[in-house]
């Protein structure tokens, strides 16, 4: 086994030391719960009768007698999300596989699953970030009946997987496997989609052309094929050992996809406390697994959203990580994937080039991943250098490729696309933020230009339509953090700023808000913490202040005399008169309680 890289080892030890008390407390609670509440043991006859009432008579007897283990399914099925529509058929596949393996399965509960692609630029987007915490609570409610020996989590997209992880970790004594649905087949290229969006932003094409382009890009069941948060989720679940090996990027509706779903049911029954191979989720999500997740995010140029979500997921297991950990790991992790927005390919090209098995093989060989971890397959991440296949109708795992099928999409550690990772910590007198540097060409990584301060993304779009942005500038967008308005993704900004950059202007963005998980080619310093609503100094910026954004150096600075800077009040932006409408008011409690973006926008603080 290759020795772990010195920097990765040092960060791991730092995280372990920082988390010692909180991790011990979490594991202590989890073990006490496992001892005090084994499945069904505390339930009376009336409780059990309610739980088994709709079952067939034979199944009722098997559960009541204790003869069969029971799987609780938490599903995020709805048929509006392309990525989640395939889950409609999964419970029956799982029930059938469980019964053949000597167990049973029930849908324990459903969780909401909203689509940022639909709500971006609309009021619903202000509920998106905290839908994660609602999903976590809904997962806990689904498992609260205490009739399950194990759990399967059905979820794919942006907030859904992090919410499921946080919720599942509250039942850390249960073996849990995450069951993906896979990406849709490739449509038009991401570059073509982005080109038409920019043409529309410039008024060069109409809405009909834009809609036609979008429908050719998002055209069928499965995740969107760019490397945004949904596909970063699937990569994370695999490298953290919560998927079956090779499960992430198999298309929905295929025999291999259905075979993997059935295999998840069989495997989770094998690792319950009833057998000899007990693997609860609390044993999987530890410090090394979290560090492995960060490494893989850096190596693939993963979603900026995980500088929030992975922090929250780790916190749920008693593990404390910071953006300094991301930054230190990024400095020694080579960029091995070129998937849009970091390149022209989509996740199907990545999967065909060698996908997760080759990525993990490369990172393990370089000592950048911890191999000595527990996964749903047992001990060791090496099992994830294999990939699934069907032979005579039976699911088997075989060694994945040792060589990339397309070096322009998936590179080696010896010949990476970049010697460092996809994300970078940004520091300066406006706070701490992050940038997805892998998506920004070197020529655009340094911008020095006057600030134009905006309160909303709509205001920036309106200024563009009025012809006021035909110049060099850094847009400073305030009051977009979790406490201000739920931190919606600022999707409307990308086509406008991208078009201006293509016209030759030096442009950038600095905000306490959030961009898409597919944050693109314009230099964007996002998640500025603390946010304006918590007194963040980004609120001291005024129109005309010279801003220097240097992504290579990791700095973003307002060039203002210190005495002048200190004397300025923090301006909090313009309140939305309709902020409590369309369901947004129901999230006020979560927003008021939440911590900073760097702390995972965690709303469960005591």
From TrEMBL:
Cofactor annotation remark: Binds 1 [4Fe-4S] cluster.
Entry's Gene Ontology molecular function annotations: 4 iron, 4 sulfur cluster binding; metal ion binding; phosphogluconate dehydratase activity
Pathway info: Carbohydrate metabolism; Entner-Doudoroff pathway
Pfam families: ILV_EDD_C (PF24877), ILVD_EDD_N (PF00920)
Segments forming domain Dihydroxy-acid/6-phosphogluconate dehydratase N-terminal: 69-382
Domain of life the protein comes from: Bacteria
GO cellular component entries: cytosol
Gene3D superfamilies documented for this protein: IlvD/EDD C-terminal domain-like (3.50.30.80)
Alphabetical list of PROSITE patterns matching this protein: ILVD_EDD_1 (PS00886), ILVD_EDD_2 (PS00887)
Required cofactor names: [4Fe-4S] cluster
Residues where [4Fe-4S] cluster binds: 157, 224
InterPro entries recorded: 6-phosphgluc_deHydtase (IPR004786), Dihydro-acid_dehy_C (IPR042096), DiOHA_6PGluconate_deHydtase_CS (IPR020558), ILV_EDD_C (IPR056740), ILV_EDD_N (IPR000581), IlvD/EDD_N (IPR037237)
Record-level GO BP terms: D-gluconate metabolic process; Entner-Doudoroff pathway through 6-phosphogluconate
Catalyzed reactions per annotation: 6-phospho-D-gluconate = 2-dehydro-3-deoxy-6-phospho-D-gluconate + H2O
Domain spans labelled Dihydroxy-acid/6-phosphogluconate dehydratase C-terminal: 409-601
Annotated EC: 4.2.1.12
Entry keyword set: 4Fe-4S, Carbohydrate metabolism, Gluconate utilization, Iron, Iron-sulfur, Lyase, Metal-binding
Function: Catalyzes the dehydration of 6-phospho-D-gluconate to 2-dehydro-3-deoxy-6-phospho-D-gluconate.
PANTHER family: D-XYLONATE DEHYDRATASE, PHOSPHOGLUCONATE DEHYDRATASE
HAMAP family xref list: Edd
UniProt record similarity statement: Belongs to the IlvD/Edd family.
Protein name stated in the entry: Phosphogluconate dehydratase
Organism listed in the record: Acidisoma silvae
Lineage start: Bacteria, Pseudomonadati, Pseudomonadota, Alphaproteobacteria, Acetobacterales
């Amino acid at each position: 086994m290759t020795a772990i890289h010195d920097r990765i080892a040092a960060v791991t030890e730092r995280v372990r030391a920082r988390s010692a008390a909180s991790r011990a407390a979490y594991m202590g609670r989890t073990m006490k719960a496992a001892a005090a509440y084994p499945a069904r043991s505390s339930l009376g006859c009336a409780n059990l009768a309610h739980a088994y009432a709709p079952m067939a008579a034979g199944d009722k007897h098997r559960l009541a007698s204790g003869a069969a283990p029971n799987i609780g399914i938490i599903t995020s099925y709805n048929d509006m999300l392309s990525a989640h529509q395939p889950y409609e058929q999964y419970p029956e596949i799982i029930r059938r596989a469980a019964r053949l393996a000597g167990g049973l399965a029930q849908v324990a509960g459903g969780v909401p699953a909203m689509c940022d692609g639909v709500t971006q630029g609309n009021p619903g987007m202000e509920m998106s970030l905290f839908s994660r915490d609602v999903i976590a609570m809904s997962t806990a409610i689904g498992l609260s009946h205490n009739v399950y020996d194990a759990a399967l989590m059905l979820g794919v997209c942006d907030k859904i997987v992090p919410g499921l992880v946080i919720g599942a970790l509250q039942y850390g004594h249960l073996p849990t496997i995450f069951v993906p649905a896979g990406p849709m087949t490739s449509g038009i290229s991401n570059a073509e989609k982005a080109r038409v969006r920019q043409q529309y932003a410039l008024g060069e094409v109409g809405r009909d052309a834009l809609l036609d382009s979008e429908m050719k890009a998002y055209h069928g069941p499965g995740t969107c094929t760019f490397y945004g948060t949904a596909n970063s989720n699937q990569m994370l679940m695999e490298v953290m050992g919560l998927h079956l090996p090779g499960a992430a990027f198999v298309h929905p509706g295929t025999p291999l996809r259905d075979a993997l779903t059935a295999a998840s049911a069989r495997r989770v029954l094998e690792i319950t406390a009833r057998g000899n191979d007990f693997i609860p989720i609390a044993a999987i999500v530890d410090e090394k697994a979290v560090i492995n997740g960060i490494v893989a995010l850096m190596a693939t140029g993963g979603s900026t959203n995980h500088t929030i979500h992975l922090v929250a997921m780790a916190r749920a297991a008693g593990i404390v990580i910071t953006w300094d950990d991301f930054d230190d790991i990024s400095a020694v992790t080579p960029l091995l994937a070129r998937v849009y927005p970091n390149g022209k390919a989509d996740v199907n090209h990545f999967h065909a080039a060698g996908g997760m098995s080759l990525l993990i093989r490369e990172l393990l060989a370089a000592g950048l991943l911890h191999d000595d971890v527990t996964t749903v397959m047992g001990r060791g991440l090496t099992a994830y250098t294999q990939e699934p296949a069907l032979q005579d109708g039976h699911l088997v795992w075989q060694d994945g490729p040792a060589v990339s099928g397309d070096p322009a999409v998936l590179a080696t550690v010896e010949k990476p696309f970049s010697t460092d990772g996809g994300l970078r910590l940004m520091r300066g007198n406006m706070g701490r933020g992050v940038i997805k540097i892998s998506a920004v060409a070197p020529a655009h990584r340094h911008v020095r230009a006057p600030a134009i301060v905006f309160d909303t993304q709509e205001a920036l779009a309106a200024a563009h339509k009025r012809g006021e942005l035909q110049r060099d500038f850094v847009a400073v967008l305030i009051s977009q953090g979790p406490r201000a308005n739920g931190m919606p993704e600022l999707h409307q900004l990308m086509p406008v700023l991208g078009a201006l950059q293509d016209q030759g202007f030096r442009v950038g963005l600095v905000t306490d808000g959030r961009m898409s998980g597919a944050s693109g080619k314009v230099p964007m310093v996002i998640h500025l913490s603390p946010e304006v609503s918590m007194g963040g100094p980004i609120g001291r910026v005024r129109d005309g202040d010279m801003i220097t954004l240097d992504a290579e150096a990791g700095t973003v600075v307002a060039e203002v005399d210190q005495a002048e800077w200190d004397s300025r009040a923090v301006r909090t932006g313009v309140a939305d008169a309709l902020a409590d409408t369309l369901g947004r008011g129901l999230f006020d409690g979560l927003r008021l309680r939440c911590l900073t973006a760097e702390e995972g926008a965690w709303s469960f603080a005591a």
